[in-house]
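Changelog entry: the CU044_5270 family protein record was regenerated in this release. Current contents:
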Amino acid sequence: MKDADTTFRALRPAALDELAGEAHERRRDAEVERIMRTSAEPRTVPRAVTRPGRRPLLLAAGAAAAAVVAGAGAVAVTGGGDGPARRHAPATQASPVDARTFLLASAKTAERAPVKPGRYWYERIQTRVVHEYEHDLPGRTLPRPSPGSRKGRPKPKRLPYTFVTTGRQESWTARSPRDRTRTITGIGVRASFPTPRDQAQWRRAGAPELLSKEDRTRSVNNYDMPIRYQIGNAQVSMDELRRLPVDAAALGRELRRRYEADVRKAGGAANVDPYPYYIWMTAQDLLAGPITPGTKAALYRVLAGQQGVRSDGAVADPLGRRGVAVSMGGPGDRIRLVIDPKTAELLAYESFVGADGAPGLSETYEQTGWVNALDQRP
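Regenerated structure tokens:
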């Protein structure tokens, strides 16, 4: 059995994580359970290598409000926020591109990118999550083992229908610990059904609420505190993040050092994800974060050298933007990154569980970049 924290970001503002509410925990547990169902041999993982298979949210203050958008052909039933959410565009396959070749080309593109750091790192993220179990509903919780029981977690009860939640959040993460950080959550939150049959089954079940009032409420959150990120088990400041090596060999050694430290804290390698998967999970967050062009290029080169990375060819992200997908399978799921071949920017992250080709969770990076004022956008 995976610990809940193994399904969340390897890199995120750690101080804000502590402010998440119960609804955030509910959504996190829901995705955890999705991953657990695919594991043949359950195992307990201490708070060591945090990985995203997983997490609907990045900045977690009021995180419960940032639920998530509808799939193609979905039937929307409730929502709120700043206008209609875009439909989830199906990924379309083209001729596969060799993963190593593409990642090395992305490295060259990344290191040529002109970047001038500002006061705040801005992100606007759309999140989409598929829900299939009772504890995904507001006010429900994941079944817990009875006190003193030697048995594992009780089997979660499946809903007679599937529903999808989507929404957006914005964040301005201050580079200086003296500046204020801001997040806006609950933007355009809505729930929907992937098919009319799911909607009909939901009505037969009594049409229960799919989103709580808190989920649907747009919330502006300010933090007058230094914001720290997290790589594995270690917290780092934004400046430390931007001082990561720009040489692939040096970055590889740094990530290996951090991984081995997490292994020791976890009590051995059997309690953490394999190193290539750890690298993949860390890369997903680093590529979407305020790292330097040199570090981004080095990271692409590190990824190119990992076994198990494959190309899924040309695809469309959930907003319909064209990119190239590279993915890696791991404990219980397959993680895919959609990268813009022209800019080497990360367009989307998708987590696949099962063989139906539909991601159980996706995060789309609508806009990222440096700005010099709160509420300014790149």
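Residues 1-74, 76-95 have pLDDT under 50 and may be disordered.
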